[in-house]
Amino acid sequence: MKKINRNATEVLSISLPKQLKRDVIKYAQGRDITVSQATKNILQSYILRERMERLQKLIGPKLRKLGIKTYEDVEKYFG
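User: That's the sequence. What structure does it adopt?
Assistant: Structure tokens below.
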């Protein structure tokens, strides 16, 4: 099991709608992880997706001008 550096962590208390709380608990149980770890996973995924969407908006038009429109185009151009 991975050791947690307690000096690198902080507690964040949030209020959730009841159904969302149940969904997080169910997510954690389905993966056999703690609710804390599930919440971290969910937040990390959300933040990464948001960053990727911002990046797409920033460079998407430039890539299209180069004729890069699909993942296959990316592979051909950069792969």
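The chain has a mean pLDDT of 91.
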